[in-house]
Amino acid sequence: MDKESVFAQAKKVKTNQGIALLFSNLKNPNDIENEYLALVRKGIVVLLSKELLSEKIKQGGNYLDFARKLIKINRSERTEDKLKKVLSETELETLKEMERKGLVKRVKMNNETFISLEKGLFAKARALEETAVEQSSQSSKSFNLRELFLAKGYIILENEDDIQEFSKAVEDMALKGLAFGFRDFDRKLYFIRKEDYEKHLNEIYKLLEKEEMGFEEIAKCLGIENDLAKTMIVIMKEKEGDIIESVKGRYKKV
């Protein structure tokens, strides 16, 4: 799949930190090269604007590129005073950050302060950048849980930290009755918007009044995702009280 095709299928989601692109059923995240991806869960990838994540990474220091720049400066020219004349304010801040993280150190010699490059500079710089990217991806994932939910109308969460964070993010909707959910025996959280729940409620009732059905059958009949069908059943069991699991994986209305 070429890059243009992948982007054409993306759904734009407005967030309080910019525009995110939501990709459903993206089998190979590498289809989008040189972009920063946050894998929210299997099959769902959220792409933040490259500028936003680049800015996040820049705040942590562009260590590797800056290390390459430093090593090109002649050792005799790598004094504190001379560097102040050739480096930008942002680069000087990065230099201070690199010193705090042990990538460089200040050495006094002949009444001058030289910037000495520590052993393993590039390996350390690369490791720090990878950490910055990972933290940025995690940050993007945090606020995108709510955005993912708003885009799809429902969400299933398993990770306990994600559940706690998401619960806080949608507390306003829950208090107004605009969204609700339950944790099933598998300990996962199944959460759905009220309008999406009401949209499919009677459709599922009609199916289960006729015969016992599983999630996949319900999804196929209604033309919806399997996860949405499962979310509906889990919540209907708790909220309505008239849906039971007659045999393992099959449900009916009583």
Tell me what you see in this structure.
The protein has 254 residues and is α+β, with helices and mostly antiparallel strands. Among the domains are: 60-125, Arc Repressor Mutant, subunit A (Orthogonal Bundle); 179-253, Arc Repressor Mutant, subunit A (Orthogonal Bundle), CATH 1.10.10.10. It is built from 11 helices and 11 strands. It has helices at 3-8, 50-60, 63-72, 80-86, 89-100, 121-152, 160-169, 171-175, 194-210, 215-222, 226-239; strands at 11-15, 18-24, 37-41, 44-48, 104-109, 112-117, 154-157, 179-183, 189-193, 243-247, 250-253. Helix 2 runs antiparallel to helix 6 (121-152) and helix 6 (121-152) crosses helix 7. Mean pLDDT is 77; it is low at 25-37, 39-44 and 48-61.
How are the secondary structure elements laid out?
Blueprint: H1 3-8, E1 11-15, E2 18-24, E3 37-41, E4 44-48, H2 50-60, H3 63-72, H4 80-86, H5 89-100, E5 104-109, E6 112-117, H6 121-152, E7 154-157, H7 160-169, H8 171-175, E8 179-183, E9 189-193, H9 194-210, H10 215-222, H11 226-239, E10 243-247, E11 250-253
Antiparallel strand pairs: 1-2, 2-4, 3-4, 5-6, 7-9, 8-9, 10-11
Helix pairs in contact: 2-6, 3-6, 6-7, 10-11
